[in-house]
Amino acid sequence: MDFNVKKFVKDAGAALSRVVQITEETLGTSEKTELDAHFEHLAERANATKTWTEKILRNMEAMLTPNPGNRIEDFFYEKIDKRKPNRLSNLEYVGIDMIEAGNDFGPGIAYGSALIKVGHCQQKLGQIERDFIGTAANCYIQPLRKFLDGEMKTISKEMAILESKRLDLDSCKRRVRKARSMLGQQSESGISAEVLLDQAERELRVAQSEFDRQAEITKLLLEGVSSSQAGHLRCLHEFVEAQTRHYAQCHATMQELQRELAGLPGASFHPTTSINSTEPVENGQERARVICDYEARDEEELSVSQNEVISVREIPGDEDYLLGFRGNQRGRVPKVFLEILSYQ
C-alpha cells in the first residue's frame, strides 16, 4: 500500500489551519465569510424539514407499532434485509381466546355463541388494522425514511464540505492581509513580501473559486427540499385516505357485529336500548345515531351533533349520503357520520 507523505502533510496542514480559523472566529479575532440571506434561509428551512420529519417519522412508527420491542425487531430485520415476521395483532390474539372460550362453553348457549361472534369480529378488526399499518408504511413512512437517509444525508455531507471550503477561504484571506501588512519589510524566510503576497492572492483566488462552486452545488440541493415537501404532501394525502378507509371498515364491521348479537336467541343486547329518541319514524325511515359532529356545508345538508338520534332514509342514487330529519328540519348527512339503529 503506497503512502503519500506529501499529501498527508498537506491534508494535516489544511486541517490544522481550519482549527486555527475556527478558534480565531470563536474568539472574535478573525473575520468570517457570511453566506447570502437566501442561502441561509434555504439552509434553515432544510434543517427544520429534517428535524420535523424525524419527529413525525418517530411518532408515526410508535403509533403504528406501539410495542418498542417489535419496532427494534423490525429495524433489525430491515438492516439484515430479511422479511419481517408476520406477527398477529393484539386484537387477533383476543379474538383467538374468545373463540376458544366460546367453543369450550358451548356454541349452543347464548354466551358461548356471542363470544365466538365477537372473537371472529376481533380477528377481522386485527386483519384490517394490519392491512392499514402495511399501507401506511408503504405510502408515508418509507418515503419519509428514504428522504432522511438519501437527500438529507447528501445535503449534510455537502454542507460539511462547504464549511471546510469556507474555512480554507477565510484562512487564505487572513494570509493575504498578513502579506500586505509586510510590504516593504524583510520576511524571516528571505522571500520578498511582494512574492509572498502574489502567492497568497493566487491561493485566495483558487479558494474563492472552490468555495463558490461548492456553495452553488449545496444551494441547488437545498432548493430541492421544496420538491421533496411536495412529494411528502402527496404521501400525506394517501395516508389520510388509507386511514379513512381503515376507520370506515372498522365501523362497518362493528355495525355488522351489533346486528349479529341482536339477532341471537335470548339476547338482551339491542343497538337501540341505550338511546332514547322522540323523533317519529315514518314509513321508509330509520333511526340513526350521530357518531361525531357534522357541520352542514350548504343549505341542502343538515348539521348534527355527536350522539344525537335523528330519522333518516335512503336517497335514490346516492351511496354517500342519507336524508336526515329533525323536527321540521331536513337535509343530507354523510353516511360515515351515522350509525343505523332501527331496521325496517
UniProtKB/TrEMBL annotation:
One of the record's GO cellular component terms: membrane
Pfam families: BAR, SH3_2
Gene Ontology terms: biological process: membrane organization
Residues in coiled coil: none
SUPFAM superfamilies per UniProt: BAR/IMD domain-like, SH3-domain
InterPro entries in alphabetical order: AH/BAR_dom_sf (IPR027267), BAR_dom (IPR004148), Endophilin_SH3RF (IPR050384), SH3-like_dom_sf (IPR036028), SH3_domain (IPR001452)
Domain BAR: 24-270
Source species, domain of life: Eukaryota
Family: Belongs to the endophilin family.
The keyword Transcription regulation is annotated on this UniProt entry: no
PANTHER family for this protein: ENDOPHILIN B, ISOFORM A, SH3 DOMAIN-CONTAINING
UniProt keywords, alphabetically: SH3 domain
SMART domains per the UniProt record, alphabetical: BAR, SH3
Domain SH3 per the UniProt entry, residue ranges: 283-343
Full protein name: Endophilin-B1
Keyword Lipid metabolism appears in the UniProt entry: no
